[in-house]
TrEMBL record:
It catalyses: a 2'-deoxyadenosine in DNA + S-adenosyl-L-methionine = an N(6)-methyl-2'-deoxyadenosine in DNA + S-adenosyl-L-homocysteine + H(+). Pfam families: HsdM_N, N6_Mtase. It is an enzyme of class 2 (transferase). Belongs to the N(4)/N(6)-methyltransferase family. It comes from the Bacteria. Keywords: Methyltransferase, Restriction system, S-adenosyl-L-methionine, Transferase. InterPro entries: D12N6_MeTrfase_N, DNA_methylase_A-5, SAM-dependent_MTases_sf, T1MK-like_N_sf, Type-I_RE_MTase_Subunit. One of its GO terms (molecular function) is site-specific DNA-methyltransferase (adenine-specific) activity. Residues 165-451 form the DNA methylase adenine-specific domain. One of its GO terms (biological process) is methylation. Residues 9-153 form the N6 adenine-specific DNA methyltransferase N-terminal domain. Its EC number is 2.1.1.72. This is site-specific DNA-methyltransferase (adenine-specific).
Length: 622
């Protein structure tokens, strides 16, 4: 199954599940955890069947019968053993009248509804895994049997067996993303947008050792690290040791399920003992190879004495107010991240933009921090990268193992104007933009081979995409991807759009829908090529074959004396300056087409909202 098919599967599953929620009286908050729990169970069953098949190949035969599989067989292969009553096939094939079956749960109590049977399945799974004890949702009796049965059928999609566990993990993340946007509770702190997480992981380049996230939310840092390590040809569970702290127990449950779906194990502590302001829950000060986090910004009313007693403040305590409280905890977090690192450790984290040049005791701490020589990279991020916040943020990176020639240097990147628009309230970095920003870091570190490999990756990927589309006029792009390729691809897109318009207008009415679908798909494929070639041109036009240079408005390597002259500010814009205004290269006709589609989307959302309001008013008898 290719990437496009997987994206369609994600969207189809979400649409089906969300339609069920819309037709029930459940809120997104009530719906989120149980639905993710069913996805987890579906993953566990898919992996169970795969491992069972492996085990049976070598299972001994006695008296003409093959010996049945046992829980210990699965533990040896890092998989969960599922008793029959916890297997997805058993649940999805139950008759509608569950009460008539005389089923009992693990405590011997009779079960009269499908919700009770699914709750029992979750308890049975927890018996197989110490990490999952008390984690899986057991609120399925809140669902009607009809709704729950339909959800079970939606996730019984055979395609999930074909694509395997890795893609179910991706679908879990997709649902988590969607729920984050819908719930928007507690400022959505349980979910850090994937592009920010990937940027942090890409710059830190984790390989092996201890990783701590002291504000771990739903575990995105662990999942992306696992992917990064596995893609490097290592085994994440044997190379990395994952530790997390998360004060909100609901978020910690999401985290443990997320890790389990991705085949990861870790130690996650939650509740009051995991409040990072007052506890080093894992006693990891000075022990971590990597620290990654997206902590809550601008937290106030932190008890100064308790925070001081908890330690991990190598640069001193931020100033307290008359109430003996720390009015803004940003520099508590920044100090913790530094304190957790071992002598060669790296840290990467998200932080409020205001922290880069805040004054008072914050400035004093920042000065001491810069003087260590361990501040490595600072990236300014634009608006709308979060689902519930429109404010900009910064990514901070520390490296205690920097080479001597970089010891007193910091790379500043201003990426506030470099992003992809997802919709009117959300921006992100696409995969190639992530690679381009990472390439700047490689050149700063002198890792030219990685940069040159990226250029080759562009050539190969673009050639493959062109071959797949089968548009002859695009083949000229391959002759000079980085210079003329962008203009050639844009001209080709324009021709394809003109051909599409002509074909749709001239075809028979009965063929119009099929013709429209064919050309829409072709236009989308060519547009994707244009977008990738545009990113290739962006990178090459600045750094050619791999020579770093400061680019006005984008990046600058500053030394400690430069930073001192800026009053110890770590704001990227203060160093990189402002780029000259350039032609943005946006095709007017194409942009109008996008605006038109966005207006149609807004109109559709407005209609759905009006329908929802009308429904609620009727329920209230108004």
């Amino acid at each position: 199954m290719d990437n496009k098919s997987i994206k369609k599967l994600e969207a189809d599953l979400w649409e089906s599940a969300d339609l069920l929620r819309a037709g029930s009286k459940l809120t997104s908050n009530q719906y989120c955890m149980p639905v993710l729990g069913l996805l987890f169970l579906r993953y566990a069953y898919s992996r169970f069947k795969m491992v069972e098949e492996e085990i049976l190949k070598t299972r001994p035969v006695r008296n003409g019968r093959q010996m049945p599989v046992e829980a210990s067989d699965f533990a040896a292969k890092s998989a969960l053993f599922l008793p029959k009553e916890a297997q997805y096939s058993y649940l999805v094939n139950l008759p509608s009248n569950v009460a008539s079956m005389g089923l009992v749960n693990i405590d011997g109590q009779p079960m009269a509804s499908l919700g009770e049977v699914v709750n029992n399945a979750m308890n049975l799974v927890e018996q197989q895994s110490e990490q999952l004890t008390g984690v899986l949702p057991k609120s399925y009796t809140d669902f009607s049997d009809d709704l729950l049965g339909e959800l079970l059928r939606i996730f019984n999609n055979n395609a999930l067996d074909e694509v395997g566990g890795d893609v179910i993990g991706r679908i879990y993340e997709y649902f988590l993303n969607k729920f984050a946007k819908n719930i928007a509770s507690d400022d959505g702190v349980f979910f850090t947008p994937k592009s920010l997480v990937k940027m942090i992981v890409n710059v830190l380049e984790p390989k092996q050792g201890v990783l701590l996230d002291p504000a771990c939310g739903s575990g995105g840092m662990f999942v992306q690290t696992g992917d990064f390590v596995n893609e490097a040809g290592l085994q994440a569970n044997s190379s990395m040791t994952f530790y997390g702290q998360e004060k909100v127990e609901y978020n910690a449950q999401l985290c443990l399920m997320n890790m389990a779906v991705h085949g990861l194990t870790g130690v996650i502590k939650s509740g009051d003992e995991a409040n990072s302001f007052y506890h080093d829950a894992h006693n990891l000060e000075g022990q971590c190879n990597y620290v990654m986090a997206n902590p809550p910004f601008n937290v106030d009313k932190v008890k100064a004495e308790s925070a001081t007693n908890a330690g991990r403040l190598p640069f001193g305590v931020p100033k307290e107010n008359k109430n003996k409280e720390i009015g803004n905890a940003n520099y508590l977090w920044i100090s913790y991240f530094y304190a957790y690192l071992n002598e060669t450790g790296r840290a990467g984290f998200v932080m409020a933009s205001s922290a880069t040049d805040s004054q008072g005791s914050d400035k004093d701490i920042r000065e001491k921090l810069v003087k260590t020589g361990h501040v490595d990279v600072m990236i300014s991020v634009g608006n709308n990268f979060f689902y519930t916040k429109s404010l900009p943020c910064s990514l901070w990176f520390f490296d205690k193992g920097k080479s001597e020639d970089l010891k007193d240097k910091v790379l500043f990147i201003d990426a506030r104007n470099y992003y992809t628009v997802v919709d009117r309230t959300l921006n992100e970095w696409n995969e190639w933009q992530l690679k381009n920003l990472n390439a700047i870091v490689w050149l700063y570190r002198g890792e030219i081979d990685k940069y040159k490999q990226l250029l080759e990756d562009y050539k190969v990927s673009i050639a493959d995409m062109i071959s797949e589309v089968g548009e002859d006029s695009l083949k000229a792009v391959n002759d000079n991807v980085f210079v003329d390729g962008c203009e050639i691809a844009k001209k080709c897109l324009k021709k394809v759009k003109e051909a599409a318009k002509e074909a749709i207008e001239s075809c028979d009415r009965k063929d119009k829908k099929q013709t429209q679908s064919f050309w829409d798909e072709k236009i989308a494929s060519v547009k994707e090529i244009v977008d990738v070639v545009k990113e290739a041109h962006w990178l090459y036009s600045k750094f050619g074959e791999g020579i770093y240079e400061d680019i006005l408005g984008l990046c600058k390597i500053a030394n400690v004396s430069d930073i001192e002259s800026k009053s110890w500010s770590l704001t990227s814009g203060a160093y990189v300056g402002v780029a000259p205004v350039e032609d943005d290269g946006i095709d007017f006709e194409e942009r109008m087409y996008e605006i038109h589609n966005e207006l149609l989307l807004l109109q559709n959302e407005s209609n759905q909202l009006m329908d929802e309001i009308s429904k609620n008013m009727k329920e209230l008898g108004v």
